[in-house]
Write a structure and sequence with these properties.
The protein is of the alpha+beta class and about 450 residues long. The strands form 4 sheets. It has an 8-stranded mixed β-sheet. The longest helix has about 35 residues.
């Protein structure tokens, strides 16, 4: 990489999974002028459990940060899908084959450890500069040199930033996305899914007195309890020290403020009421949640965008393809975005805006259809899992598929556990796909 290429100014908005991995991937390619703008004063590294799929692990291993994540991860050996009301097992799917097939086991970990490990990888790179406590506004994608205003907390006036490449990883509420679509005279409305989620973490200390719950946290199994319009998915994380539960249920608390907020302080009695008809094992865990520590998240997506790229600006992660959590691919897809951006920008033949735009279009070609397909698959999985008595025929068909699965026949209605869906997701090598697509677009052998 020549000096002009190394000195391309690349600005990244947002230091979430996508933004951090973008910075690290670009530094590994040899770029030396990378700035990451983040509104928070520090990254904090909070959050709940997260699934670490092979397609994510493959990228992070190449970037040199997977080992520290893997050390605290729990490898999943099986998944059990159960009736919420009775705890009766609908299906059990073995997962040991995944490592042999795809090179990495399907494991789970703590979101904070994942983010911290990627961030630590970034801090080892001397050419990544983090700008914290800074809000980005007035994004301009019309010029071949994108620009924005940056307002530092405590300052009265913003300063202006111009760059050669702008990567907007600023989440589902992305202001850069709005600015880009406005410039293109396009729009994509945020879609209210009508769903919300509780995210719960129980400690080993809380669960240890109960042998039934202790068995859960000691296991290498993910369990999904399903019911009408609701489900709970649960698994141990952080070397079996924490048991993570994530729920999905109809949105009630956010209905009155559909655009004002994405999180709210939850009510423990309300949470218990939502899952009142679930089995005693679930009840015991929900009762362990301390009063005052119930938080609820609103689940939102937006309609597919007409494009992710305008001139020298590209959208990344939830800014362009937010998803429901039912395939456990939200962070993994943002990380794939980042890996592909590293590849295509790292292979630029020159620093011209024309070449930059062409490379970003290759990124879109590799990523857009795949990500949007997985967004729809996650929504389809939710529709299947949440069937109730109001859709009796569809529920009977789904349960017949579960019954056939017990005999080793047919697909898994829970798409996350279906071997064909896993193959489509886990076998995808985004680096190789990006290299092939770049060489085709730029006419290389």
């Amino acid at each position: 990489m020549d000096e002009a290429m190394r000195n391309l100014k690349i600005c990244i908005i947002g230091a979430g999974m996508g933004g951090l991995t973008c910075a690290l991937a670009l530094a590994k390619q040899g770029f030396e002028n990378i700035e990451v703008y983040e509104s928070a004063s520090n990254l904090g590294f909070v959050g709940a459990g997260i699934q670490l799929a092979p397609n994510m692990a493959r990228v992070l291993d190449r970037l040199g940060v997977w080992k520290s994540i893997e050390r605290e991860a729990v490898v999943l050996r099986s998944t059990s899908i159960r009736q919420g009301a009775t705890n009766g097992e609908l299906a059990n799917v073995e997962l040991d084959y995944i490592k042999e097939t795809y090179g990495y086991a399907h494991s789970v970990g703590h979101r904070s450890n994942l983010a911290a490990s990627i961030y630590q990888g970034c801090t080892r790179e001397p050419h990544i500069n983090f700008v914290f406590s800074t809000t980005v506004t007035d994004v301009d994608t019309l010029s071949t040199k994108p620009s924005f205003n940056a307002l530092q907390r405590g300052k009265s006036e913003p300063y202006h930033v111009t760059c050669d490449v702008l990567l907007a990883a600023d989440g589902v509420k992305s202001t850069a996305r709005v600015a880009m679509l406005d410039a293109l005279k396009e729009s994509a409305t945020v879609q209210d899914t009508g769903q919300a989620a509780y995210r719960i973490m129980l400690t080993r200390e809380q669960m240890a007195p109960d042998p039934e719950l202790l068995d859960l946290i000691n296991s290498e199994r993910v369990i999904r309890w399903i019911g009408a319009k609701r489900h709970i998915i649960a698994y141990p994380v952080q070397s079996h020290e924490i048991y993570n539960l994530s729920t999905t249920q109809p949105d009630v608390n956010f209905a009155a403020v559909p655009s004002a907020t994405y999180t709210t302080k939850g009510s423990k009695p309300a949470m218990l009421n939502v899952f009142a008809d679930f089995c005693p094992m679930v009840q015991k865990m929900l009762h362990l949640v301390p009063e005052g520590e119930v938080c609820e998240w609103k689940l939102r997506i937006h309609q597919p965008l007409p494009t992710w790229v305008h001139n020298s600006t590209a959208l990344v992660g939830d800014a362009c393809h937010p998803t429901l959590p039912h395939l456990a691919q939200g962070a993994a897809q943002a990380i794939e975005d980042a890996a592909v951006l590293g590849v295509v920008l790292g292979r630029l033949p020159d620093t011209s805006p024309k070449s930059i735009n062409k490379a970003l279009k290759v990124y879109e070609t590799v990523r857009k259809e795949r990500a949007e397909t997985l967004v729809e698959l996650a929504a389809a999985s939710a529709r299947a899992l949440h069937l109730g008595d109001d859709n009796e025929e569809a529920k009977k068909k789904r349960d017949a598929e579960f019954a056939a699965l017990k005999k080793g026949q047919g697909p898994v209605p829970d798409k996350w556990a279906d071997a064909e869906v896993q193959k489509m997701i886990y076998s995808f090598d985004c680096d190789k796909e990006a290299i092939a697509a770049f060489d085709e677009a730029f006419g290389k052998a």
